[in-house]
Amino acid sequence: xxxxxxxxxxxxxxxxxxxxxxxxxxxxxxxxxxxxxxxxxxxxxxxxxxxxxxxxxxxxxxxxxxxxxxxxxxxxxxxxxxxxxxxxxxxxxxxxxxxxxxxxxxxxxxxxxxxxxxxxxxxxxxxxxxxxxxxxxxxxxxxxxxxxxxxxxxxxxxxxxxxxxxxxxxxxxxxxxxxxxxxxxxxxxxxxxxxxxxxxxxxxxxxxxxxxxxxxxxxxxxxxxxxxxxxxxxxxxxxxxxxxxxxxxxxxxxxxxxxxxxxxxxxxxxxxxxxxxxxxxxxxxxxxxxxxxxxxxxxxxxxxxxxxxxxxxxxxxxxxxxxxxxxxxxxxxxxxxxxxxxxxx
Length: 345
Hints:
Layout: E1 9-10, E2 16-22, E3 25-31, H1 34-45, H2 60-70, H3 77-89, H4 104-115, H5 120-137, H6 160-170, H7 176-185, H8 189-194, E4 200-201, E5 204-207, E6 210-214, E7 217-221, E8 230-233, H9 236-243, H10 257-270, H11 280-291, H12 296-303, H13 309-320, H14 323-344
Helix pairs in contact: 2-3, 2-5, 6-7, 7-11, 11-13
């Protein structure tokens, strides 16, 4: 009787996984193609290739590979792709070292070297992955690495005048709907790309998925956070724009993320505006809500923020434009007090 081959399963990252029983334990094999995963699983079952090594015998690189494989089914495709880029490009001098022999000094030196060439965020991301791997496979080691100071995020928020110019410049173009979804409703570009016709119920848009870029191209996933799954009331103007879109498949927008970004840059250039990123429209939406006095709780709900961190960043940026006005109010208050005191003498 012919033995049944293990069935490959497609993972969110685009890779394929097969599971087989070896010595009474279920072992997973992950590969880039279904055929490769199945072949490796069969070879592992037959004893032709070695079982997974014990954590104590792994190199740092092998430990990172195993960690990524273990999280393949639960992390987003973009996160897995980011981890694999770190595995290939960051702290390469640590990769051949045995994990059990790894020292804090070696990690610190690798971080120091990386900090000379890469941004603070890149260094912190690489160290974050390394820390997770150490916690998983060498829990006795507590990292006390000194990391480069966090850099204050530089964000550009279009002025009220520029927002109006952008909206008017987009009218009648293929960018009108993406622009308005971002600046009016605060949607991320991945959420705009993930909108399907069944997301619409009356005048309500249900934001419940996103399209992101993984190692093998565009992939559908859930929203960025639990809070990202939200329902927004859409204005009639937007609903009419949506209805005008061609119904060629389940999706409303048929542009890639790169296409949206590049066409938005060209739209701004043509309108004589400074360089803005498409994501700056989402910041503009937050800024407008803050300026209109929308309570933080409701602003966070509309934006799909899990915490108020980004809200505070935009808030500080928005208030910076009013510093002169605030200074005048404070100065006038104390000048009035000073003159009042002088008059009383």
